Amino acid sequence: MFMGTTYNSIDDKNRMIVPSKLRAELGARCVLTKGLDKCLYIYTTENWARQMEKIEKLPESDPKVRAFIRHFCANACECEFDKQGRIVIPQELKSYAAIEKELVTMGAMSKIEVWSKDVWENPANNSKMETEDFANALTEYNF
Fold first, then answer.
1. What is the pLDDT of residue 133?
2. What are the two backbone dihedrals, phi and then psi, of residue 99, each rounded to the nearest 5 degrees?
3. DSSP labels for 36-80?
4. 95, CA 20 to 30 Å: which among 71, 81, 136, 140?
């Protein structure tokens, strides 16, 4: 399970160092794709396969499902780490996540999320909640 937050950056060749504590759990290869909320997701190849199994069960007759498949799969790429533990973020993914230089990389259970630091820290970012909001939202799930 991935957890923890690291502040890092990309270089001028669009390479990011995946923090060693997260990289150790990823193995030799990983899958990078568009996430939700304008961030990127990094999956182990095993967790990616599990996601694909779930997606295959969705009804492709639904236009929302087809749009989600395109969002999630069309720009996904398998990545290998170089000797310094870096992966390349393709330009399309970099643009989608509004990544300029500074990143916030965080473990999010079965995946890693990569955020532009500017997007993550923007007060308009609806991806963060206050503690009371969490408590209220989770009661809907009997948590």
1. 73
2. -85, 125
3. STT-EEEEEHHHHHHHHHHHHTS-TTSHHHHHHHHHHHTT-EEEE
4. 81
Gap between the Cα atoms of 107 and 41, Å rounded? 10
**Helix-strand-coil percent breakdown of the chain, rounded to 5?**
35, 30, 35
Span 76-95, average pLDDT: 96
pLDDT number for residue 126: 76
Q: Which residues pair with 33 in a beta bridge?
A: 41
Distance CA 55, CA 58 (A): 5
pTM of the model as a whole: 0.90
35-78 pLDDT, tens digit each = 999 999 999 999 999 999 999 999 999 999 999 999 999 999 99
Residue 75, token pair as written in the block: 């720009």
Domains, the chain: 5-139 (3.40.1550.20)
**What integer pLDDT is reported at residue 137 of this predicted model?**
74
User: Do 124 and 107 meet the contact criterion of CB atoms below 8 Å apart?
Assistant: no
The residues pairing with 121 across neighbouring beta strands, listed in sequence order, are none
Per the CB < 8 A criterion, the answer to whether 108 and 40 are in contact is no
